[in-house]
Amino acid sequence: MKGTALFRANQLDEAIAVFEQVIKRDPDRSGRDWTIGPDPFAHHLRDVINCAPGCIENKYTKLTLAKALRILEQKVTENPENADNYCHLLGNAWFNLSYYGAAWNGLDYERSYVWGSQDEESRTNFTDLSRARNYYRQSINADKTDELAALSALMFAKCVVVHSEPF
Fold first, then answer.
1. At what angle are helices 62-78 and 83-96 packed, to 10 degrees?
2. Contact (CB, 8 A) for 90 and 135
3. Which residues have a Cβ under 8 Å from the Cβ of 82 and sit 6 or more positions away?
4. Helical H runs in the chain?
5. Is this model's pTM higher than 0.85 or not?
6. How confident is the model at residue 90 (pLDDT cuts 50, 70, 90)?
C-alpha cells in the first residue's frame, strides 16, 4: 500500500524501492495483486473501465510500470528529438492510471470509493489529470508530426472534458 501511495504521488523512485523491498521479502508477491490490466500507454477514445473477459493484457505490474515511467521521463530529456512521442505515452499512462482510465487499479485498490471518500488528498490525486494534461501539452509543443500533435490535442481535450477542468 505504501508503494502504491508513493506511485500515486509520482514519487517513482521511492515507490520502486518499496516494491522491490516487498519482492525481496516475498518473491511470490511480484505479480499477485500488482497487475495493472490494460496497457496504460495505449490511447483509447472510448474508455472501457470494466471490459469483457479476455481484454485484459496484464502486461505490467506496479513495479514494472513505475520503472517504465521512470525510463520514459529520462528519455524526454536525454532524447529531445523524440520527446513528443515519449510525452504522449506518459500522458496516456497518467490518464489511464486515473479514476477515468482503464488501468485505474495501478494507483488504487477500489475504484468506486473515490467520490464518497473522506480522504480529500486521495480523492484529488486519483481524479487529477494535470500530469496527463501537462505531458500532452509538451507533446503538442514538441511535436514534429501533425498526426501525433492532433492525437495529443485530442487526448488533452479529453482530459479537460472528462474532468471538467479549465485549460
1. 150
2. yes
3. 75
4. 2-8, 12-25, 62-78, 83-96, 120-127, 130-142, 146-163
5. no
6. very high
